[in-house]
């Protein structure tokens, strides 16, 4: 794999391709987990199980993916004076918001009769573990240069 | 009112304590991960890209436990 030389003025962190790849693979694996979970849910709990498996997988993968997506969003501020503040504000703010939304969703979905709680829980666990496996594999296979974001001085000239 | 009487008056679902623990643990974990990343980037700004990826994988593992802990609300009655 060849990489094109980076533009020295390009201050985008080198983590972007890794995160983007992890999000894409996470979505692909989520599709697989949803299909397998949906079949098991349909077999063991009928239509409610199917809906629960699809919803559980979707919830797990979307909420696990928000962290990577928030880092990608925050990296758009790379190079600006407010980058560090904006980066941690967006990533940690997104994290907090994500958990509040997740808790509200869990409370809202608890009592509904068109969901099977056990299948939903198992689908969420499967989605979370699947997402973690994808993240680890993508990071383990990624190549990040050590001095990626360094700005070197121009080479000396002889004259 | 003695302690035994107070404890006897407490009612509710004990699983609620679990949701609190599911929030505290990852909060501390993510705090440590992000704090150490800030330290690392402050020491070596050129490694920001690498450290971001490591921070992200650390947050992913930490928040996984929180998600599973909160989702137990579906199965604990």
From TrEMBL, chain A:
The keyword Transmembrane helix applies. It comes from the Bacteria. Keywords: Membrane, Transmembrane, Transmembrane helix. The chain crosses the membrane at residues 22-44, 50-74, 86-112, 118-140. This is Uncharacterized protein. It comes from Agromyces luteolus.
TrEMBL record, chain B:
Its main location: membrane. HAMAP family: ATP_synth_c_bact. Belongs to the ATPase C chain family. Key component of the F(0) channel; it plays a direct role in translocation across the membrane. A homomeric c-ring of between 10-14 subunits forms the central stalk rotor element with the F(1) delta and epsilon subunits. This is ATP synthase subunit c. It is a multi-pass membrane protein. The chain crosses the membrane at residues 12-34, 54-76. CDD domains: ATP-synt_Fo_c. Coiled coil: none annotated.
């Amino acid at each position: 794999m060849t990489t094109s030389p980076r533009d020295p003025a390009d201050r985008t962190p080198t983590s972007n391709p890794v995160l983007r790849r992890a999000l894409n693979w996470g979505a692909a694996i989520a599709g697989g987990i949803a299909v397998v979970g949906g079949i098991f849910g349909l077999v063991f709990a009928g239509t409610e199980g199917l809906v629960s498996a699809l919803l559980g997988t979707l919830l797990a993968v979307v909420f696990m993916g928000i962290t990577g997506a928030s880092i990608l969003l925050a990296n758009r501020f790379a190079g600006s004076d407010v980058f560090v503040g904006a980066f941690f504000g967006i990533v940690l703010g997104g994290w907090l918001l994500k958990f509040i939304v997740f808790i509200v969703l869990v409370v809202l979905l608890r009592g509904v009769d068109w969901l099977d709680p056990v299948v939903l829980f198992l689908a969420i666990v499967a989605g979370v573990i699947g997402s973690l496996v994808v993240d680890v594999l993508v990071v383990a296979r990624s190549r990040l240069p050590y001095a990626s974001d360094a700005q070197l001085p121009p080479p000396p000239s002889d004259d | 009112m003695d302690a035994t009487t107070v404890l006897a008056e407490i009612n509710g679902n004990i699983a609620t304590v679990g949701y609190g623990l599911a929030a505290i643990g990852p909060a501390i974990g993510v705090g440590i991960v992000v704090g150490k990343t800030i330290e690392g980037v402050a020491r070596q700004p050129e490694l920001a890209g690498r450290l971001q990826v490591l921070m992200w994988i650390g947050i992913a593992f930490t928040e996984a436990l929180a998600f599973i802990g909160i989702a137990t609300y579906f199965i604990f009655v």
